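Aggregate trends can hide what the representation actually does to any particular protein. The sequence in question and its structure tokens are set out directly beneath this paragraph.
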Amino acid sequence: MRTFKVYDGLGGSLIDKVVKTCSNFAVCYNLRVRRYYQRKAAHTNSIVAIKTVAHKLARACYYILRDQVSFDVNKAFT
């Protein structure tokens, strides 16, 4: 009997790319996110700073889906 892999390993990397792209747009177009990014980039390098923005956005997406609420930038980036 042939077994099939349920997870091919590409989903995580694709989601990672999408969230990082969204975080780059958020840094460009949202002042509060840009301030957070600049504060993090001052202490670390820019790659780590963009990953922290991506992590915050991913957590915000989880809570939006779980609680069925709209996005509030003031809650996510303080």
Notes: The chain has one domain: 13-76. The CA atoms of residues 33 and 77 lie 6 Å apart. The helical segments are 11-29, 31-43, 46-67, 73-76. The chain has a mean pLDDT of 86.
